[in-house]
């Protein structure tokens, strides 16, 4: 270290070079800085971010206990792909998806197959690729064209499925939701499927509202279609959130591998799996539903290993966090945590329903997520974007946004209740919603609507 750098270290913290100047934005600095200086600049700039626990827009976990943080800190350098160097981490990954296969009622968990992913978006894309490849193999075996695959799903589907169709040349067939059909429920499904349909996506926890799509009802509609046409179309359950809620809170609901037509299920470990981002899982009910030619055998750092993923190097620490949470909570602990989240959601939705300005779209009795709209004719002076902005001024991020195609004239606001939103904190939120609604109702003239935009809500 130079004499100048030693002198810099003794200077008052915010008078040091680097902190006494504007940090570069688009160009690598010419010279190094003290680690304390670099850290302080990063800390200062990220201080402008919101408080993650007050972010009720995101499904992604924002709280874990101190022991989980220690597990993470001890393993953040582990590369999940390097199974030769980290065989125990690889074994723990296998344990986790086998546990999920059992949780989701796979007929034979040992005969299932699965993998961890960076998040549920990657998991969905892997499931979609398995659908497409199986369909291609079957079509080629019959000497038929394979150039026009399509995938059927709700218009309220998460954007990752639109990405899948775009990236992998699959036609998306979006079944519009409506006031009468708030989710994909099998209604008119025969109008959307044909011999080029690689599968149907059912969502356990629609992103826009948190509602479950009735998987058994969708499967029954596909059974009827097969009887009438011979088309045998599988289901993938996008259980990003609900796959870690339904087994604990709605154990009698048939949505999982109890339905033979369900070939694969995905979930987010970093949502209601209660792990920090980013971690996802995908499991197939049987190895036969994952085509062998999608699995690569790679030689890496002295070993040969199978890999099926869009990413290669990726962190192993989150997998260990998932195992920690499984061990820490067990079935009973998960049920307790998820029940408290749902009770808090019902507490909030019940309070919002009493305000008088709003109508609930749903109440949070599926996953602990619910949405509401401004009551028709209530006011011309403000809208939900104004309430969104008023709450943001108090630190809360409660997004307002338009519903999907065929309902785009309907704006809703949504709350996601996650582990870490205590009942006391929820009471503060409800009080703020009541206060800001009363403030907006007291306006004598309309609020401006220029430059309004939806908040992030996926």
UniProtKB/TrEMBL annotation:
Catalytic activity: L-glutamate + H(+) = 4-aminobutanoate + CO2
PANTHER family on file: GLUTAMATE DECARBOXYLASE
NCBIfam families: Glu-decarb-GAD
Basic and acidic residues bias locations: 7-16
UniProt superkingdom: Bacteria
Cofactor(s) needed for function: pyridoxal 5'-phosphate
First and last residue of the signal peptide: none
Species in which this protein is naturally found: Microbacterium pullorum
EC number: 4.1.1.15
Keywords: Decarboxylase, Lyase, Pyridoxal phosphate
Renumbered residue ranges of the record's region Disordered: 1-35
InterPro entries: Glutamate_decarboxylase (IPR010107), PyrdxlP-dep_de-COase (IPR002129), PyrdxlP-dep_Trfase (IPR015424), PyrdxlP-dep_Trfase_major (IPR015421)
Entry keyword annotation includes Lyase: yes
Name listed for the protein in its UniProt record: Glutamate decarboxylase
Pfam families: Pyridoxal_deC (PF00282)
Similarity field: Belongs to the group II decarboxylase family.
Enzyme class: lyase
